[in-house]
Each structure stands twice: as C-alpha cells, then as structure tokens.
Amino acid sequence: MTKTEINADQTALGIELGSTRIKAVLIGADYQTIASGEFEWENSFENGLWTYHVEDVWNGLQTAYQKLANEVKVKYRTTLTKVGSIGISAMMHGYLPFDSKGNQLVPFRTWRNTNTEQAAVKLTSLFQFNIPLRWSIAHLYQAILDSEEHIKHLDFLTTLSGYIHWKLTGQKILGIGEASGMFPIDFETGNFNLSMIEQLENLITSFNYEWSLRKVLPTVQKAGTQAGNLTEEGANLLDITGNLKAGIPLCPPEGDAGTGMVATNSVRKSTGNVSAGTSIFAMIVLEKGLSDYYPEIDMVTTPDGKPVAMVHCNNFTSDVNAWMKLFSEIYDILGTKADTEQLFTALFQKAMEADADTGGLVNCSYYSGEPITGLDEGRPLLVRSPDSKLTLSNLMQSLIYSALATLRIGMEILTTKEKVQINYILGHGGFFKTEKVGQQMMANALETPISVMENAGEGGPWGMAVLAAYSVQKKNQSLIDYLHQEVFVTEKIKTINPTAAGIKSFEDYLNRFHSMLEVERVAVDQLK
C-alpha cells in the first residue's frame, strides 16, 4: 500500500533546517512517516557573529533528502521521482539579504546573534511593540545604524526557510508564522503591519536608499494555500541524482515555531506547546492580545494567523550536549564506542535519582546571549561549594534544571502578570525522547501538566510535512479542524503532572540560579 501511495503522489515531504540537524520526513496518506533522512551540522562563530555557510545549507539539504530517497528505494523498491507536496521550514528569524541579481550580500546571521540591541530597543520604542534582538527587522535596522556598505544594494530580505523556498520555486513567499518573526504582523489583515512599515520608512528617509521596506520583504501567505511549484532548477538543487521531477506544489515556508504547533496539535486558543532543542520556546495561543508589551515576550502567529505569545530562550541543550560529548570520550579512551542515544537515555534517567537540593550544584547553560535575563553573551558555568555533592545524578539534574530555568522566568510574565489561562502544554523535540524524564522535570519547572504525543521525537519536519499535505488535501477545513479531524484522530497522548516534591526542588534551584546570574554577568565581563 505504501509503494502505491508513493507512486500515486499521495505523500508529503517536510524538510526542516534546525540548529543542529537538517531532517527530511516523507509521510503517507495516513500521516505516518514512510521514510526520513538527516544531516548534522553546527553553526560557527565568525567575525563576531553566529552563522552557517550557504554551501553547508545545500550540502545538508541534499544529504538529508538523498538519505530519505535511498530509504524509500531500499524499503519499498521504488525510485522516488515525485511527491504530492513539499514544505520547507527552518529555524526562525535571522538575516539573509540579497541584491537585485540574487547575490547574497553578507553571511547568514542567525537567530543566535545578540548584536542588535540598539536597533531592537529603538524599534520597540517606535512601534510600542516588542521587537526581539533576533528578528530580521532588528538585524536590518542595526546594519543601517552601523552604516554597513551592503545596505545600499539591498533588494530582497528573507529568512532561511524563505531562501530555500525561493531557490526551489522562484517565489519570494513566507508563511505568516515565519513572517511574524521578521516584522510585526497585523492580526486583522494577516499581513505585515503597514503602519509600522511606514513609521520605519519615515525614520530612515534621510539615508536616501533606493529600496523601500515594503518591497524588500517577502509576500505573506497563510497555511492552506499553495506557494508555487518546484522548478527544474529547484528539483536539481534538492535531488542531485536528477530523479525528482519538477512541478510539485509547495506550501508556504514556515518557521520551526509554527511546525512545532502543528506537530503538537496546538493551534487552538488557550493551548500551548514547548519546542525543546538547541533553543527552547513556548508558544501560547491567546484568547486576546496582551495588555502590554514585554521585552521577554514575542508576539507572533500560528501558521493560520492567530496571535501567539512566544517565550523564546536562546540556550537550551547546547550545554547538555557538550557534557554528553565529554562523557563519550570516556568510552573512546577505553577503546569502545559510545551509543549516543543509549548514553543520553541512561544519563537522563540518572538525573531522576538526584538529591532533593540537586546536591547544591548550580549551572548556567548560556553559550550565547540571553535576552530574557539581559545578557548579551554567554559563558557556560558550573558552580559548587566545597560541601556540594558532585554526583552524576546531581550534575545531570543541574544541567537539565539550568536549561529550564530561563523558560520558567519568561513564562511567569504570562501566567502571573497577564493571567493567561493555559488548558494544556504539549512538548516536542529531542528533549522528550527519554521517556518521562524531560516531561516530568518540565512539568515541575512550569507547574503545569506536560503532554507528549507518540510523534514527539519527529517534531518540526513531520509538522511541516502535515502543512504541505494540508495545502493540497484540505476539504474546506480550517487548520484546526484539519488537524483534529484528519491528522490526530487516533493519536495517543501521555500526560505527566508536576509533583509537590519536584516543584519544591526546582524552586530551590531557581533561587540559586537567580543568584548565579550575577556570577554569569561578571564572567561575561571578565572572561574574554
């Protein structure tokens, strides 16, 4: 039956370029994964900025797709030449400017950069709307303030998913969720906020640029629409074997926040999800707008345009991953090979055996700056007193608690100041692969039940494939109805509630973490 689906184009392909992994997922008519392929990569810190090389973008994309195509060939004895629809997603925000000939003007500046504070503060004041440091418009305005030469030649500005989509289809389009991380969205019109565009254009009039902001931004589209077709050039870019045929429809490209909402069926009002990976963010779909704007809270949208409060933390698993690599070296010097997945599982489970006070350990997981706590740079730190209990279980719990601490600080604004009601939070991403551990600790940290679905490990790429399928298969259904009636009909959900002991343990740790932040500030100043 699966081979028949493949040959009949009843599939959907979702590709997501995450911070540490590019993954391609092919789903069938029942939304189950048929095949997948991935490519691991890392950002690099060059000339004071976090970036990925465009050559690595295409190498990773092509490698992930080829692994998927090879799996199809081995499992189903058929060559993948066509799919029903395609969707591209990627880490949100960042800065990818091009000139009128399509030349990239500067290396890709990722969401991780925090050099845009001056611009973000000025734009927030101008718009009376929070503009985070990582948003594309903050990068653009900072480049203007810094008198960067390339700004004179600007013709098109987009994000990573928008760039890939453009090269595959020739269309300069963004899904509304991804677009909401470039520039504020007017929730009534479902487009960029024109009054704010006019405010910024008036602000930069004296620079006499030949371009206008409204012309360099991509076209905004909501989920459920078609956003072009795969061109011959695009097909050859994606599949270097030349087997993939042109003409396949693509849906609007999205960001990893939007695909996370889809992957967890969290696009209804008063629902939420947490995407946990290199960075972590919580997305809460609002009943109404917030009473005020906060620098810790981003206002973005669902893929179908509903307002969402987003708590985004730049740092999450990078420090945990670094320690895991250290532990793997023990296997190397003993002449054995560590199974990465087994190691993660064993050490996460070990964290559940920690002392109630985490042995007195406290950790700061900041590899980069963290706007929520007001830090422009990061210095990963582990601090203990002479009487602390440095055990493996305490160390692992401290690492995980530290990763969750900043998210908790941001979420308190919504739950305490704005009294936002949250019916449930669903988690997805690699953090939840080890059964119960991450789920329980997050429930304790946020003091709310945390649910995961069976596809929690698939995350964004699978969610992007669902959006691709929705763009061609919907039956006059809203995205909410489509997910509820078609995709998640038989989905099994596991929910874990916080425990009194776990809440107290995390609260005690959070108090130490707040004190630790003062040490972190000194470390940033003194350790260059």
TrEMBL record:
Its EC number is 2.7.1.17. Residues 273-471 form the Carbohydrate kinase FGGY C-terminal domain. Residues 12-239 form the Carbohydrate kinase FGGY N-terminal domain. The keyword Ribosomal protein does not apply. Pfam families: FGGY_C (PF02782), FGGY_N (PF00370). One of its GO terms (molecular function) is D-xylulokinase activity. Coiled coil: none annotated. It comes from the Bacteria. InterPro entries: ATPase_NBD (IPR043129), FGGY_C (IPR018485), FGGY_Carb_Kinase (IPR050406), FGGY_N (IPR018484). Keywords: Kinase, Transferase. PANTHER family: SUGAR KINASE, XYLULOSE KINASE. Belongs to the FGGY kinase family. This is Xylulokinase. The lineage of its organism: Bacteria, Bacillati, Bacillota, Bacilli, Bacillales.
